[in-house]
């Protein structure tokens, strides 16, 4: 997982804690939960695209003075 994806995951978890605290203290807000769900889906999308990009990236053969030649 790349740095921006980890940051997004941390922010999503923090938003869940804040949304839950708001709901406990002041009552439920549908828009707040909807916003959190949208943030969660965006985070899942970022994680999925990160893993797909990492899995689909072909490895290049090593180059340079120490690289083996065929």
TrEMBL record:
Q: Mind telling me which residue stretches traverse the membrane in this protein?
A: 31-49
Q: Where is this region: Disordered?
A: 50-70
Alphabetically ordered keywords of this record: Membrane, Transmembrane, Transmembrane helix
The reply on keyword Transmembrane is yes
Q: Look up keyword Membrane and say if it applies.
A: yes
What's the protein here called?
Integral membrane protein
């Amino acid at each position: 997982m790349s740095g921006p994806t980890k940051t997004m995951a941390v922010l999503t978890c923090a938003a869940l804690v804040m949304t839950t605290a708001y709901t406990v203290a002041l009552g439920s807000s549908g828009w707040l939960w909807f916003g959190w769900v949208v943030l969660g889906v965006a985070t899942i999308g970022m994680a999925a695209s990160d893993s797909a990009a990492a899995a689909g990236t072909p490895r290049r053969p090593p180059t340079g003075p120490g690289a083996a030649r065929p």
